[in-house]
Amino acid sequence: MKFSRVNVRLALFCLVYFCFSSAIVYCQPQSQTLKLKGRVDELSMFASMAGMKLSSSQFEPGKTKVEAVRNGSSAYYCGIQSGDLLSNIQASEDFLKIEFKRAGKTYSSMVPIKLSVYRRKLKEGISDPQPGPVNKSIKSGLNFNDTMLKALAAKLSHYRIVFLIDRSDSMDGGLRYGRSDISRFTYLRQELQDFSGSVLPLLGDKKNVSVITFNEDFEEKEIADSAGLTAIFDGLTPEGATNFSKPFSYVFEKYKSQPLLVILFSDGFANRGESVDQLIARASKEIDLSICIFQIGKDEDGEKIIKRLDSSLESLGAERDVVSVKDFSYLFDHGLKAALYELLRAAN
Hints:
Number of strands: 12
Radius of gyration: 23 Å
Structural class: alpha/beta
Helix content: 25-40%
CATH superfamily of the largest domain: von Willebrand factor, type A domain
Distance between the termini: 82 Å
Number of helices: 12
Order of helices and strands: HEHEEHEEEHHEHEEHHEHEHEHH
Shape: elongated
CATH class of the largest domain: Alpha Beta
CATH topology of the largest domain: Rossmann fold
CATH architecture of the largest domain: 3-Layer(aba) Sandwich
Largest sheet: 6 strands, mixed
Strand order of the largest sheet: 9-8-7-10-11-12
Strand content: 15-25%
């Protein structure tokens, strides 16, 4: 059978039109749904998974709007746009069903998300931060006393402090260490909640603390207390590739005029961007800089990458040894406060 060019073009047009019109309505087999109840942490986590920023921390049908959509996210590719007015949200399997209005018309879109990640976090029982000792089911080592806590706070008060938190896809992996193999991201959340609940209050008005979460891109937020840290983690789920160089370049430029302490948490798998070794070596000549690196999760390849940053900088022309590293075994056994205290004490 022969087709004319007109017929071929007509067929292609029909195919493109069908695909475009179907992009807004993505059909999935019916399954048991999980309805949002309007909880702040629940809504923000779903929105983050989809790549959206909403106008309200609690869902109100017909009132909650999409304020921004992250380029390259699931929501972006499913046609969600800034300004869309949400009328209903439901989670089914690994899709988020969103009903919304735009220019007086109603649409429905099925946005892929990692609902299994969310369900596991619920199962792991992520709790609100509590000042004081970390849950003893996680810790097994050094007794970090009040004297050491005050000494740690005194050391930190001299710095502008920036936490760099890896939120790439690999951080969703297990710890591969200890009896309770929770995800790396959940473990890090628990450690930082304990840290912020007990250390930040001792810094008084001189907090000067910000958190930068990163994958192939990054975002910075100031925190003044444990509630600020909780809000950051509530809106995140591990996804995407890893680019260390972007946040490091940003931090070195923004805070070059003051003593700077960068505390990096990562499993060690960088696969995007400029060599961080070179960046740190150059910055060490221009900035009053200290960097503490903690590996999250027990992985030999990641450990090699992180230890390389501790040993290769002088050969690249670094002014001094500005990087200190603690492996995951030490962090797990003693906790973040004790590990950071030991790193800063050894560096001074």
